[in-house]
Amino acid sequence: MKSKNLFVSAVVFASLAITLPSLTAQNYPRRPIEMVIPFGTGGASDIFARNFAQIASKYIGKPFTPVNKGGAGTIEGMMYSFGAPADGYTILEITPSLLIVEAQNKSSIKFRQSFEPIMRVQSDVVLFGVKANSNLKTLEDMIAFAKANPRKLKIGGISPGGLDEYIARGFAAKAGIEWTYVPYKSASELKAAVLGGELDIYQDKLISFMSMVSGGDIRPLVVLSDKRLPVPELKDVPCSVEKGLDFTQGSWRGFVVKKGTPPEIKKIIIDAFEKAYADPAYKDMEKKEMTDLLPGYLNAADFGKLWDSEFNGYVAIFKQMGLIK
Known about the structure:
Blueprint: H1 2-27, E1 33-37, H2 44-60, E2 64-68, H3 75-82, E3 90-94, H4 97-103, H5 111-114, E4 115-124, E5 126-131, H6 139-148, E6 154-158, H7 163-175, E7 180-184, H8 187-195, E8 202-205, H9 206-214, E9 218-223, E10 251-258, H10 263-278, H11 280-288, H12 300-321
Parallel strand pairs: 1-2, 1-3, 6-7
Antiparallel strand pairs: 3-10, 4-10, 5-8, 5-9
């Protein structure tokens, strides 16, 4: 009788083990979900994550709560998300910055080992410009001045050691110049520094950059791309490749969850985000923000493969630049 009871208990326990994940998925989500944004407020990535989350909320059934964690070159956002349970209630927006953090070994948390992809949503283009009243009228002016005055020009970006610094350093290496990179905590601080004269060169993603161009504050000098952009205000702005500078690094944006999140819950999130991506409201947003100029979407599997490919590329470049051994 005792062995029979043990057998029944084992069967019941095994049945529970099989059904608990599906029960968990059936109850998910029971409360609002945190959308962790590893940047300050007001920048392109912050605007994107907030708007996408609002659209996705109608498909997942609960609202998203934006949480800005913009310190330490996106490391703060990663650490915050890593410290949360792997239960689907903390979703982290990512850009290439976290791959760069891992490539430079700047955090004890290894991004690719600690998180799982949901999907990539956008690709974005980066531009360089100067204040409208700057004496640097063209890309050639900027490069000539920088060569004659090493490290005198100041270019800004969001946080030290992240994507913006990689782009600034990578472009400088290709152009054979030296300038000084100055990190800021948020896009609003960066823009204020440019307008206030603290910075000589303004770099930003397209939609945020265009707000400065449309306001008459910034004159664009170059698009980091292999072709000019089909944007009326930029029709006369050269791309880097046509100027003999084969440097086209831009940005992308996507979402991840902590490794160990139940597959059933991960599938619910992916399904909701896929629907949000196809939603006319998102397509309108994408067009309005000009993030439809490059293919952006990648599913979870292909997004994960991209991580490995870009990580290896960053390591190679950083070794050439002497930033890592």
